[in-house]
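Problem 12. The chain below contains 343 residues. Write out its predicted structure in token notation.
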Amino acid sequence: MIENVALGRSGLKVSNLCLGCMNFGESTSEEDSLAVLKATYDSGVTFWDTADVYGAGRSEEILGKAFVQFGFREQVVLATKVNGAMGPGANDRGLSRRHLRLAIEASLRRLQTDWIDLYQLHRYDPTVPLDETIETLDTLVKEGKIRYWGTSTFASWQMSDAQWHADFHHRIGPVCEQAPYNILDRRLENDRAGFLKQAGWGLIVWSPLAGGQLTGKYGTVSPSTLPEGSRIARNAMWRQRTNRNASEVAAGFSALASEHGFDPAVAAVAWTLANPLVTAPIVGPRTLEQLTSLLPAASLTLPQSFLAAVDSLVPPGTAVADFLNNADWQVGHLPGLDNHREC
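Solution.
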């Protein structure tokens, strides 16, 4: 059963599963994408996340076609992101006033809508004064082009800085962070969790399945023997995140889930929801079957014995794979924003 919950301390209500739309227009055809979008809406998952860089705009275009074809734009909480390169020019990326103004208009055109419910800064941009970015976002809210804004994969000090600048200048501030969080990388539970709780931000989780490693499909593999066609095999950045003993731990988790009678993928997504800080994990299906298989995670309550066993595999606050590193916090060093495959 899908529930609607508050996005942090904001007045916005979102479904407790979020549809990730990165595959649409790339590994999922337009026809199949539209079928998944219709089924997602019918299931009650009405919180949808995309980005302008996904498929170089194709994901947003397909969502726009779905809104026109099915007529459910007003019932969907639509989130997109900005920062990644959308052209060859020096000003075709980043969080400057110029790029933000051009990017929001382009996203609105592709999405065939007049407003974005949640506009997210896809990464921190150290080359642009934060005041310039926040002043522009404040203006976009007042113009009605966006309703709320948030951050994505920010360090705790970057989130705190954004909140401080907004408060100090009496501007509309951020309401949420989108961050990597899964059983293989629990480092969010350290200082970033403390900030999120204290500030009352919502938390949207990307890669709850650790790039598919927690589905139980891959078994024990090395970066050189990943399954052909899988997300983690297609992209160098994902391959780098299969490190340390992540594969063995993922296989151990799959066995643990099976022992408890759970589908590993469903249990991995439900595990993120067991953390009260989490508003909604993002599930990014390539197919209708994948979507259907993950929906039970929204209402699965995991027993304490299972949660304790997961803690034994990967202790709280630790990691056996790198889904967040210093490069993620520096513009210009994130392959995913250049090749349109990052979350």
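Discussion. The radius of gyration is 19 Å. Students who got a different answer should revisit the alignment rule from Section 12.3.
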